[in-house]
Each structure stands twice: as C-alpha cells, then as structure tokens.
Design goal:
With 216 residues, the chain is mainly α. It has nine helices and no strands.
Length: 216
C-alpha cells in the first residue's frame, strides 16, 4: 500500500489524542519521546489532508501546558522526597547529577528555565515537577509554561509541516523509504537545535566569573 493511501486510513482524532497525551505525560515528568511523536505527527499532517496542523499544534500545546501544570502541582506537594523516588524509579533520567543540573538551571534562570526548558529534553521532563519542588510562584511558572508550550509545540509543528509540504513530491516518489528518511531528517534537525541550545546555555554559564572570596 502506498504511504498516501495508508495515511488516509488513520483517524485524525487518534493522532491529535496521541500527541496531546504523550506530550502531556512527558511534561508531567514521565520520560517519553514527546519530541519524536510531535515531529512524526507534523510530517503526517503535511501529507494527510485529514490531519489539520493547526489543530495538531493546539493539541500539542494544550498537552504541554496541562502536563507541566500537573507536574508542578505534584512537585509542590511531593517535595524533594518525590525527586528521590523518581531517581530510584528512573535512574537514567532522574539521577542525582541530572537533578543537580536542572536545579542549577532553575536557580540561575528562574522562570526562564521553564520557558527554555521546553526546547531541551532533560529540562522538559523536569520543568513542572522541579518548579513545584522549588516553590516557584505559580504565576511566574504559568506565564513561562504557557509561552514555552505554545512556542515550542506550535513552532515545531509549523516548521516540520512546511518541511513536509516541500518534500511532498519526493515522499510520493519514494513511498515508505521517503517517509522514513523525512522523519530522520526532522529528528536530526530537532537534535541539532537542542544541542545548540545546550551549548549556548553552557557557554553562558562558563562566561560568568567565579566569585571572589571575601578577605578575612
């Protein structure tokens, strides 16, 4: 079956629900491939007339905002024992080193760590729960959460959608091979952006002068 024919059999509502659910759970603090799901769905929308990219981006944004808000509430109630429990359950994602790195980012950037954390996989998982643990004022968290969720989810959907539209004729010509290659290209572009963001963050941290000890 040709890719385009197969895509016509996929119910759009199931795509919207899957994207919103996975991104919401990831934002809540569960390590899931939200970015991969969003990129893949945006590519599908560029080739499937039944999947509206605007609705897709809206569902992704809502999932991100709601998930982060629930994570904030859980973190505020659970406190540091919650981080210890997550470290025991998910040592690959919530190790002491990861927690310390995320906490330094929050202490340094405040609400902007929530905003820019949307574009970095590690902080995207930590943002909600850690903001709650650190007792960030909710209004600051909400502003950064809403702006970051909309710009990340909506921007990613728009960019990948238009990349898919441009590549439409190529995808039709190569069918499944083209779809797989396009997904890989989309993922590679997102990884490059994420790496650049990490390098920029590290560069800003390295540029800060070390505190000078006070003379006795």
């Amino acid at each position: 079956m040709h890719v385009q024919e197969w895509l016509e059999t996929v119910p759009a509502v199931s795509i919207y629900a899957l994207v919103g659910l996975v991104i919401g759970l990831e934002s809540l603090g569960i390590p899931l491939p939200g970015e991969i799901i969003l990129v893949s769905a945006a590519l599908l929308s560029s080739q499937h007339s039944g999947i509206n990219p605007v609705i897709l981006g809206a569902c992704a944004s809502i999932g991100a905002i709601v998930g982060d808000s629930i994570g904030y509430a859980i973190g505020r109630k659970g406190g540091r024992p919650l981080l210890a429990w997550l470290g025991a359950k998910f040592p690959k994602h919530f190790s002491d080193g990861h927690v310390a790195t995320a906490e330094r980012s929050f202490q340094k950037w405040g609400m902007w760590a929530v905003f820019f954390g949307r574009f970095i996989a590690l902080l995207r998982i930590f943002a909600g729960p850690l903001a709650g643990v650190l007792r960030m004022p909710y209004w600051k968290f909400l502003v950064a959460n809403v702006l970051g969720g909309i710009i990340w989810a909506g921007g990613t959907t728009a960019v990948i959608y238009y990349v898919g539209v441009v590549a439409e004729s190529w995808l039709k010509r190569f069918s499944w091979l083209g779809l797989v290659a396009a997904v890989l290209i989309g993922l590679a572009s997102m990884l490059i952006v994420r790496r650049k963001a990490k390098q920029a963050t590290a560069g800003r941290g390295a540029a800060e002068p070390e505190p000078v000890p006070a003379a006795e």
